[in-house]
Write a structure and sequence with these properties.
heterodimer; A: alpha+beta; globular; B: about 120 residues; alpha+beta; about 25% strand
């Protein structure tokens, strides 16, 4: 075999090796769904850890902190059995707090779950939340970054809609301090699974039928102005 | 006696670092008895490392002289984890590299408990 063909084989082997090594492990931090479907359950490793694949629904269920994916959604449909903290509507999430890492500046992201939902973490300190019926409501302004990402990240609600699981029961309308989207709540929590009349598409039994109604506020006009500037 | 047993596989009991011994003891006390941990030398550069199995998972514990060295070695620890589910985590002067190459802990509960016990012991 000539020297040239040997070199060719060596090059081919090197390229093949490079191809194999491209399957780079993916880092996660904190509890997260294993497959992205409820029956896949949860991975319970809290520390930064690695899996072979990127998460399912990464764009809406996760935020990135450094090179690690952090799950910020409602863990209950995936079989979560730990402490549940009930929330209503959109709110800030401080990523470094939920994964317990020290940083100079908080890494603030936003949860876009409409209506009642659970998280494994408490409301972050330093952010205003009001409590009503044992449910946390974010009680402060939403920044431009929240509005900018909203069209993409509200898709989390489309993902969760078909999943059957227990949600916090909310009877009263949100407190006036809450400025996120308001959903209508069917206060009769024993709604049967069959025969629920929903305007857009059939929704499996949940404790409420949700129709998002963003509150009209003067702030919205400001938002458009900012958007035009960009 | 318990502490000595944790390094039974080592002919030189003294070779097992104090922090490593404490972690192995803590795992045992937490109901996750480690198997034989063997001296694997400087498996991670600058560290005094011991490797074995605990709760069906592959673990390597390395003692470093300084916490910064242990932190810095995390990157090389990730290479040991490879494509398996696992973690490379330092706490104090000790680095734990733990992996589940045989997929024995799909929910990650065991792995999580072992890491948390390690962190509590070495903090």
């Amino acid at each position: 075999m000539s020297r040239m063909s040997l070199m060719g084989w060596a090059l081919l082997l090197a390229l093949a090796g490079a191809g194999v090594s491209e399957a780079k492990p993916v880092k996660y931090a904190g509890l997260h769904p294993r497959t992205g479907q409820p029956d896949g359950g949860l991975c319970h490793i809290q520390a930064v850890h690695s899996h072979a694949a990127v998460p399912a629904h990464a764009q809406v269920l996760y935020r990135q902190h450094g090179d690690a994916y952090v799950f910020i959604g409602d863990p209950v449909p995936f079989g979560y059995e730990g402490p549940r903290h009930p929330y209503y509507g959109h709110h800030p999430v401080v990523i470094n707090i939920i994964i317990n890492v020290e940083v100079e500046e908080d890494d603030v992201e936003y949860c876009y779950h409409d209506g009642p939902h659970y998280h494994a973490y408490e409301p972050p300190p330093g952010h205003d939340f009001d409590e009503q019926e044992d449910v946390h409501y974010y009680a402060d302004e939403f920044p431009e970054a929240y509005r900018r990402d909203s069209p993409k990240l509200v898709q989390v609600n489309v993902l969760y809609r078909p999943w059957r699981y227990t949600l916090p029961v909310v009877v009263k309308p949100p407190p006036s301090s809450y400025r996120g989207p308001v959903v209508k709540v069917n206060v009769n929590v024993n709604v049967p699974a069959v025969g629920v009349d929903v305007r857009v598409q059939p929704v499996p039994a949940r404790h409420e039928v949700i129709i998002v109604e963003p509150r009209e506020r003067p702030r919205h006009r400001k938002h458009k102005k900012f958007k035009d500037r960009d | 006696m318990r502490r000595k047993l944790s390094c039974l596989g080592l002919l030189l009991l003294a070779a097992c670092g104090n922090d490593t011994k404490d972690v192995l003891d803590a795992w045992r006390e937490a109901g996750q008895p480690p198997g034989e941990f063997k001296d694997v030398g400087e498996k991670l550069p600058g560290g005094k490392c011991f490797a074995g199995k605990v709760a069906g998972l592959d673990a390597t514990l390395c003692d470093f002289k300084q916490a910064e060295q242990a932190k810095k070695a995390e990157d090389e620890g990730w290479a040991l984890v490879g494509s398996a589910v696992g973690s490379s985590v330092s706490s104090g002067k000790v680095l734990l590299v733990i992996a589940d190459p045989r997929k024995e802990d799909p929910s990650g509960r065991r792995l999580n408990e072992l890491i948390q016990t390690f962190q509590r012991t070495t903090r």
